[in-house]
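Query protein
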Amino acid sequence: MAQAAAKTGAGPTVMVAIEQWFPRQQRILVDDLALSILPFGARAFVHAMRPSPIRNWMVQATERAFPGIWSGIMCRKRFIDDAVIAAASEMAAIVNLGAGFDTRVYRLPSLAAIPVWEVDQPANIRSKQDGILRRFGGVPPHVTLVPIDFDHEVLEPALASRSYALAKRTFFIWEAVTQYLSEVGIRSTLEFLAAAAPGSRLAFTYVQKDFIDGRNLYDQPRLHERYVKQKIWLFGLDPRDVAGFLDPYGWRVIAHVGCDDLAERFVKPTRRHLLASPLERIVCAEKL
């Protein structure tokens, strides 16, 4: 699982970087750092997408292959950005689980004074650190990079060894990770989160369970073939079960959104015509 997930780490940020070639008023997500922290090959690919005919072709081709994936990735990042910003003044820490090449803790001014721990596979952490050093000259002092082999290491001691304490009221980000884990892995992480300080927040995404089970392909046969049949995506949730799934660990759902809400909020103002897929949903929860 870990190696397969690590190989997908740069993909969403490549799409975010290509999004920046659109005029600012047409962007679903504004992220001026995405390009600079990517590995060389990915940066070269993004630069090739700059001319508008090529950029538009890339978006359309992606939409034909995986309907709704472009707006889905941009919207989930916008939603989580907004959730973190809204709660930032109440948080003493941010922990980004499976951070990949995400840039929010470097580009959002309201997070600059909050200690951050970014957790990911060692290969992703090394590559991201190279990008951060290239862009900033060093890892910002409020950020700690935590390499962890999720298949063989335990989350709590890995974070504790780098001075993170669960007593801190924390915003946990768990974006585009849960589908790569087994249910045992999911529950292990939730057991760790059960000890979080009251008032902590959790934002996470999940894939619909009936897609993982093969009962509903959501017009995504290629995605199912590539990720589910190849046993890269393992876990999904039924939206009706989310509250009950979190409740034993002391978390209460405060927001639960799907593609229609996200498209209305973030895509419609751009006047771009992009598909939206109900395959993935986003949850924000509060620790009781």
Observations:
- The radius of gyration is 18 Å.
- The chain has one domain: 2-287.
- Residues 121 and 191 are 20 Å apart (CA to CA).
